[in-house]
Design goal:
It holds the Pfam family EAL. Its cofactor is Mg(2+). The protein has 4 domains: about 160 residues, Beta-Lactamase (2-Layer Sandwich), CATH 3.30.450; about 90 residues, no CATH class; about 160 residues, Reverse transcriptase/Diguanylate cyclase domain (Alpha-Beta Plaits); about 250 residues, TIM Barrel, CATH 3.20.20. Strands 12-13-15-16-17-18-19-20 form an 8-stranded mixed β-barrel, surrounded by 4 helices. Strands 6-7-5-10-11 form a 5-stranded mixed beta sheet, with helices on both faces. It is an alpha/beta fold.
């Protein structure tokens, strides 16, 4: 078979295959039927012609016997045979005398030569057996006339059993009489055989070329689904084009999925920018190292690295340069650590290193070494040279934690200590800080569980205008547990340390907005405290605004509170965000005013709408003249800037009188009342778990 023909056969479409298969089996069946019918025809001719010829010969013999019984001579017998030939022109009848008759009555003239030249005549005369000879066009039957007792009366020299002669009958095949029922049965048999052959052929061909490849494909699919093994391939070959395409594309799909699986595994384990392990893989290695160290009773160290002022590099040189700097730093860390050490990029500019089988002293010296190398190194980038420094936190197992969660908390606390110690330093934890670390961990788990169980609830603390009219509410977060409530002061620090403030702020905001939507008659504002992490995520702020608009709340009724500590690191971005949200109607309040180092500068650079005077100043105005002076000047400056002031005090007559006496403007002055729950069916917070009054 040529290559082109082989290719065309192997790539045959299913419809064409079925058509050619049907035509092929039809031709095959017709040939088979033709051959079978020829044999059947020959057998039918043989059987039918013998019977037909015997009957004809018997009739002719009886006719001649009647002539001979009447004493006719040879001429009359010949005339009778000639008349028989004329009566049936398609039949040729000849009679030949045997030796007993020839010896007694003589031979028929002209037959000696014919008889001697025809071996079949001689054979029939010799053995007395019927002879049937058939061809495609003619049937010849030689019928021997055997002498019987009745024949001896005329043929004195014959004895019973002698061959007195033969009758030679020749006639065309077309003259053969065939039964109608036989013809119908043969036709039905041939058609049934044809259909059976066609069905069997189609069945086995379709099974071989279509069903078996598809079955192999489904088996592979089931095996892959059960064992998730993408290395398997369909090996069964088929000559059907559609099955070939299905098999080929399925194998290609497996290759693509295997490639995607590999990439996903890489992405799930590696940081795409630096090629270092990511946080997820770092947690797995840390868990493995804890198990190994526990089993062998060994220690190991963790080093957390946070680049100092990396945001300045991104803002100054652009994020592409910042990315290259991170890549250079990753290469530097890999060069300065052992092959057994695990280096990971936890996110942003944070890195972590696991030092297996390393005690605390060697871990601390390794961190100091890395700090000096970073401080003394200059990163060579395409368009610039960058000097960087980093803060390091060092913790060890089991001294600073006996599990993954505790070690992670210990690293965060150590890094927090390093950042607040002036940066570019290495920080470790002392005994007191380990206690604080466990407290953070415990409270963090308490908060996580409360978020998962939807046990965060909201209280509203009234903000009352000094003459006594309700002005707004501050939204406070509480955790409900065992019919008691835990104040935010008990868990907010843990939320900040563990990065849960965004989720907490979003939950509190949604509950407050839903309260406004459920009480459309109320016209008061809601004050929301936002953590620094939430303010840093402008996308989160926009999601909050979109949620309020979706609930149909006027944005003028929303006030976001920020603190000086949160405003200082990112005053320019915060100023832009305030201006953007002001255009939508949202107001801002500066919380804990007076507790920072540059309080009055914020009034100049931040377009806030409210100033909340830090409560410690207001509480002492009756007994401390210096607090009185500060409160008077804060209120005076704020009011001259057109900013409303809020005194963080509990509502009572004494406070009202003091605020009147010491100069807070009544039209723009407000103070706090007691918190109330947004769930009227629940007891108030004071009845269940009293909170410190502001």
């Amino acid at each position: 078979m040529s290559k082109n023909l082989q290719t065309s056969v192997q790539g045959m479409p299913l419809l064409k295959f079925i058509l050619l298969l049907s035509v092929g089996y039809l031709v095959f069946s017709l040939i088979a039927i033709f051959l079978i019918s020829t044999n059947i025809k020959q057998k039918a001719i043989s059987d039918l012609s013998r019977e037909d010829a015997r009957q004809t010969a018997e009739l002719i013999f009886q006719s001649l016997y009647s002539v001979m019984s009447d004493g006719w001579d040879k001429q009359e017998i010949s005339a009778t045979i000639e008349r028989l030939n004329q009566a049936a022109p398609n039949i040729e009848i000849m009679s030949y005398r045997g030796d007993p008759v020839i010896n007694e009555f003589g031979d028929t003239p002209g037959q000696i030569k014919q008889r001697e030249s025809d071996p079949l005549i001689q054979q029939a005369l010799a053995n007395g057996q019927e002879i049937l000879q058939t061809s495609q066009t003619e049937i010849r039957f030689i019928y021997p006339v055997i002498a019987e007792r009745a024949c001896i009366q005329c043929h004195k020299q014959s004895t019973p059993g002698d061959v007195n002669g033969v009758i030679d009958i020749r006639y065309p095949v077309e003259n053969l009489k065939v039964s109608l029922s036989l013809m119908i049965n043969v036709m039905l048999g041939y058609i049934s055989l044809l259909l059976a052959l066609l069905f069997i052929g189609l069945f086995f061909k379709l099974k071989t070329f279509v069903i078996q490849p598809i079955s192999a494909l489904t088996d592979i699919m089931g095996d892959i689904s059960q064992h998730a093994d993408l290395t398997k391939r369909v090996r069964y070959k088929s000559r059907i084009l559609e099955v070939q395409h299905l098999t080929s594309y399925f194998n290609r799909m497996l290759v693509t999925l295997q490639d995607f699986q590999y990439r996903l595994e890489q992405l799930s384990a590696r940081d795409p920018l630096t090629g270092l392990y990511n946080r997820r893989k770092f947690e797995q290695f840390l868990d493995y190292e804890v198990d190994r160290a526990t089993r062998h009773q060994r220690s190991f160290c963790l080093i957390m690295i946070d680049l100092d002022n990396f945001k300045h590099i991104n803002d100054t040189y652009g994020h592409p340069v910042g990315d290259m700097a991170l890549q250079k730093l990753a290469l530097l860390l890999m060069e300065q650590t052992r092959k057994s050490d695990v280096i990971a990029r936890l996110g942003g500019d944070e890195f972590a290193i696991i030092l297996p089988e390393t005690d605390f002293e060697h871990g601390l010296s390794s961190a100091e070494k890395l700090r000096h190398i970073l401080t003394d190194s200059t990163l060579e980038l395409p368009d610039c040279k960058i000097s960087i420094s980093a803060s390091f936190g060092v913790v060890s197992y089991p001294d600073n934690g006996d599990g993954v969660e505790n070690l992670n908390i210990a690293m965060d606390v150590a890094m927090y200590k390093a950042k607040h110690s002036g940066k570019n330093c290495v920080a470790v934890l002392d005994e007191r800080e380990k206690v604080a670390e466990m407290e953070i961990f415990t409270k963090g788990e308490f908060l996580r569980q409360a978020l998962e169980d939807e046990r965060i609830t909201v209280f509203l603390q009234p903000i009352v205008q000094i003459p006594g009219e309700l002005y707004a509410y501050e939204v406070l977060a509480r955790i409900e547990s065992d019919d008691k409530y835990t104040a935010a002061s008990e868990f907010i620090h843990a939320a900040e340390e563990l990065g849960l403030t965004i989720e907490l702020d979003m939950e509190v905001f949604k509950q407050g907005i839903k309260h406004l939507a459920n009480h459309p008659a109320e016209k008061s504002r809601l004050f929301f405290n936002l953590a620094s992490h939430t303010l840093a995520k402008e996308q989160v702020i926009h999601e909050m605004v979109a949620f309020a608009q979706e609930m149909g709340i006027q944005l003028q009724r929303i006030v976001f509170e920020i603190t000086e500590r949160e405003a200082l690191p990112r005053i320019s971005e915060l100023s832009r965000l305030i201006d953007e949200l002001h255009e939508l109607g949202i107001e801002f309040a500066l919380d804990d005013f007076g507790s920072g180092f540059s309080s009055f500068l914020y009034l100049k650079y931040l377009a806030v709408d409210y100033v909340k005077i830090e409560g410690s100043f207001v509480r002492q105005i009756a007994v401390d003249q210096r607090d009185r002076i500060m409160v008077e000047h804060i209120a005076s400056i704020a009011n001259q800037f057109g900013i409303k002031t809020i005194a963080e005090m509990v509502e009572d007559e004494e406070t009202d009188q003091l605020l009147r006496t010491y100069g807070i403007n009544y039209a723009q002055g407000y103070y706090y009342g007691h918190p109330i729950s947004i769930h009227p069916q629940r007891p108030s917070a004071d009845e269940q778990h009293p909170f410190p009054k502001p």
